[in-house]
Amino acid sequence: MANYQPKPKKDSFFSLHFTSTVSIALVLFMLGLITLLIMAANQFTDQTKENISVSVILKDDITEEDLSRLNRYLNAAEYTKEVKYISKEDALAEYTAALGEDPVEFLGYNPLHSSLEVYLKAEYADTDSITKIVQPKISSFPGILEISYQKDMLQMFNQNVNRVTVVLGLITIVLLLISIVLINNTIRLSIYSKRFIINTMKLVGAKAGFIRRPFIRRSLFNGIIAALLAILMLAGTAYYLQSELGADFDIYRPAIILPVVAVVFLFSLLITYLATFFSVNRYIRMKTDQLYFI
What we know:
Blueprint: H1 16-49, E1 53-58, H2 64-76, E2 80-86, H3 88-99, H4 103-107, E3 115-120, H5 127-139, E4 144-148, H6 151-192, H7 195-203, H8 208-245, H9 254-285
Antiparallel strand pairs: 1-3, 1-4, 2-3
């Protein structure tokens, strides 16, 4: 009876490489998801801040020249996103629509003043910037009765944003550490199965760089595939989030999508390269006898 010679198992995609690629893709998806949420939260915060305005109440006797000069300055100021002029008549119409009462019927005249609503850029929408930069510069112009803004609401909003930022930062750090450990262990397991091949290459005189090269090339390829899988899953998640948020918030803007894609790809390539490099080096330094006891 002829001796049965088992065929060596071929390294197929649906083997250890498939498992490690999918595992890395899931970890990258979680990392990309938290990055997506952080970027979306930052954009939403900026949009909300830029909807808070500083009201520049104008005197009734302000001249057209002074109003024009003030308006030109505000439109050109580094802290201004948008300026809207509200006349006495517009202010009266808004007041009447909001309260359902016309003060002219009781007083015989319009007690409201015209104003300029100054919408600030997000980086200037805080109490310190308004009190130290915006108010002093605007108040130097003639014809201004008062400068007001919703100070309490702005302070509370910024405090809540700071708390959320700290929480998301801590979650990101923890998730980053977990991602590094999981991807490193996944790659080390795949290299572990090739430890005797590494040892054989070393025994026949192959240099460390020559031994590492195919393993690093394969790991980088798997990392790219894993990153693409993670980005596909993130695209589906972004589509769902966009449908929930509606048209008021655009999650597909480059300022959100590009950083997420960059983080996923760069982290995947960096961690797979480093994990493979150090894992292969470990078995290169080992003696043959030690390979049987690990």
